[in-house]
Amino acid sequence: MKDIHMNSIRTIDRAIDVLQAFSAKSTALTIEEISKISNIPKNTVYRILYTFERRGLVQFDADALTYHPGLRLLEFSMLKSSTLDVRQEAEPFLEELHSLTNETVLMALPEENEIFYVFKKENENHEGLKVNTLVGVRRPYLYGVLGQAILAFLPEKQIERVLSIPPQPHTQHTVTDAARIRERLKQIKRERVFVQSNETSLGVTGISAPVFDMNGNVAAAIAIVGPEVHLHDQLEAMRNLVIETSNKISSKMGCSMTETIR
Questions:
Q1: Which ranges carry the HTH iclR-type domain (predicted)?
Q2: Total-model pTM
Q3: 11-44: buried (b, 16+ CB within 10 Å) or exposed (e) per residue?
Q4: Which residues neighbour 206 within 8 Å (Cβ) at sequence distance 6 or greater?
Q5: Count of domains observed in the chain
Q6: Contact at 8 Å (CB) between 224 and 101?
Q7: pLDDT number for residue 105
Q8: Are 58 and 68 within 8 A, CB to CB?
Q9: Which residues share a beta bridge with 123?
C-alpha cells in the first residue's frame, strides 16, 4: 500500500467491519451478533446490511432472522466460498471433456434468480459459431442450456419465482410456456441431463448436466455446445460424456449420490 498521509473513509471502514464479522465458523449472524462483533451500533449495522442485501453482498434468512454472505462477493474475491472450489475442482474434468468432444465447454453456478458463468473453453474450429457468453456474465435461468439443469433441482418456491417472469424468446423454437417448462424440469430431474436445440441460437445444440456438492445439493451445471449438424449423429455418445463428467465432478466435490446420478 502506498504511504499516503490521509484519513480513511469511516463509512467504508464500518461497512468492511460488518463484512468481517462473518467467518468460516460464523456464516450466519443476527444484527445483534454483527453489532457486538463489529462494535457498531445496531441502527448503523441495519443500514449497512440493507445496502449490502440490495446489492447482493449479503442475504437475509427471514425464518432464522440471520444474514449470511451473498454470492455477489465472489466477483470481488472478498470471501472464499465453497462455490469457488467447484470451479477449481471441475477444471481438469472440463478440459478433458473439451478434448474428448472438441466442442465448446461451459460451466455456471446458481446465484439467486440467475446463473453465473465461471468457465468457458471454445472450439475454435467451428467457423462462425461463437457462444455469446463470457466468464463472469450472468444469465437468467431460462437462458440457454445450463440454467434449467440447475433450476430443476432448486426449491419449488424458487422455481415458481423464476417461472413467474416469462422468458424472452431468442428464436421461434424457444419454449416460453410455463407449463411446458415445468414438465421439462421434471424430466431433467429424472434423467439428470438436458438436451436443447435451436432455442437460444438457430443451428446450435447444447447438452448439460447438474453437479452436486457433498450434501447432495446442486452446486453447478456443465455443458457442451456445438453445431446441431455436428452433434446430431453422435448425440447419445456426447450425452454420456457430459453425464460422466458431471458425475466425476460431483464425486470430487464429495457427493455420495454419484452412483445414482447416472
A1: 9-71
A2: 0.64
A3: eeebbebbbebbeeeeeebebeebbebbebeeee
A4: 144, 145, 146, 195, 196, 197, 200, 223, 224, 225
A5: 2
A6: yes
A7: 93
A8: yes
A9: none
Same domain? For 254 and 128 the reply is: yes
CB count, 10 Å around CB of 95? 13
Q: What is the DSSP letter of 29?
A: B
What CATH number is given to the structural domain containing 18? 1.10.10.10
- With cell 498521509, the residue in question is 5
Query: Based on the domain organization, do 139 and 252 belong to the same domain?
Result: yes
Tell me how crowded residue 60 is: count the other CB atoms within 10 A of its CB.
Answer: 16
What are 2-60's pLDDT values in tens digits? 456 677 788 999 999 999 898 767 889 999 999 999 999 999 999 999 999 999 889 99
Better-scored residue on pLDDT, 89 or 240: 240
Give the range of the structural domain holding residue 50, as residue numbers without chain letter.
10-76
Mean predicted confidence (pLDDT) in 209-233: 89
Q: Which of 228, 257, 237 is nearest to 145 (CA)?
A: 228
Cα–Cα distances (Å) from 166 to 122, 141, 142, 195, 199, in that order, read: 30, 11, 9, 21, 15
> Are the C-beta atoms of residues 134 and 120 closer than 8 Å to each other?
yes
